[in-house]
Sequence to fold (146 residues):
Amino acid sequence: MTEKSPGHASIPATATATATAVRAAAAAAAVLTVAAALGVRAVSGGEVAKYAGDALYTVLIHTLVVFLVPRVRPLTAAGTALAVSWAVELAQLTDLPAELSRHSTAARLVLGSTFNAPDLFWYAVGAALAWAVHTRLTARRTLAHV
Fold:
């Protein structure tokens, strides 16, 4: 059974169903990631909350990459999330994120305002964690279809 997509060749219905399931899982993972970040912030403070938040920021970006591109490989999604996280952090070496953050809470949450070199390490920790979970889930899904 196939499904017609405008301007594209026929797409197998199972591929469409799989993409929908992956998107649903990614959306749920994004919600859980935000809840985890808020939970860490509620129960701890200081460096623990800050660096856990950095790692979870990259995990969230990973889930958004998977949501947008359900067939993305785990390493590609993790690399993309890490690159975006590092780009945002390095942009903080300029005045632009700080200026935007002064005018918008959303900009402050997404872009931050001040460069902090240790954040780069914690983003890598988040990318590694997201890669490991994504790899395990992908392998599990592949084994279920064998």
